[in-house]
């Protein structure tokens, strides 16, 4: 299949920066990050007709898999391992998974209405009580409870649409 440069350029334009930040936060190596981003975009472009759900989620999961594959390859080459002083493989996979989950959750939260997102952030990230969230958001505590209920339902739907396993 010939490379459709417009499609690849559009993927880079829309998702390249976020993808690069994600990979760089896991690898801390700018050249490796760029290589992973390029390989990710090409793989996703090749799979584009078969992708269901969020393209961004698929990009991040693909980048995660490429990073893990690269890490495993490096583990099989003793000289490279010694040069880079790589950590425990399970720890590296866990770190990448944690970063991926954070990115996917941020994307899902951005899809919520402002009212729902504000309530979830207050209750789950800032760890406010219902009453504290009500004061902070300047709404009744009953509204906080109601919005939290519907926000969690909406978030589950969004995560399902993104293909994120819970």
UniProtKB/TrEMBL annotation:
Gene3D superfamilies: 1.10.1740.10, Winged helix-like DNA-binding domain superfamily/Winged helix DNA-binding domain
Domain of life: Bacteria
One MF term in the entry's GO annotations: sigma factor activity
InterPro entries assigned to the protein according to its UniProt record, in alphabetical order: RNA_pol_sigma-70-like (IPR039425), RNA_pol_sigma-70_dom (IPR014284), RNA_pol_sigma70_r2 (IPR007627), RNA_pol_sigma70_r4 (IPR007630), RNA_pol_sigma_r2 (IPR013325), RNA_pol_sigma_r3/r4-like (IPR013324), WH-like_DNA-bd_sf (IPR036388)
Domain RNA polymerase sigma-70 region span(s) in chain numbering: 11-77, 108-156
Alphabetical GO biological process terms: DNA-templated transcription initiation
Pfam short name (any one): Sigma70_r4
Keyword ATP-binding: no
Alphabetized UniProt keyword annotations: DNA-binding, Sigma factor, Transcription, Transcription regulation
Entry similarity comment: Belongs to the sigma-70 factor family. ECF subfamily.
Protein known as: RNA polymerase subunit sigma-70
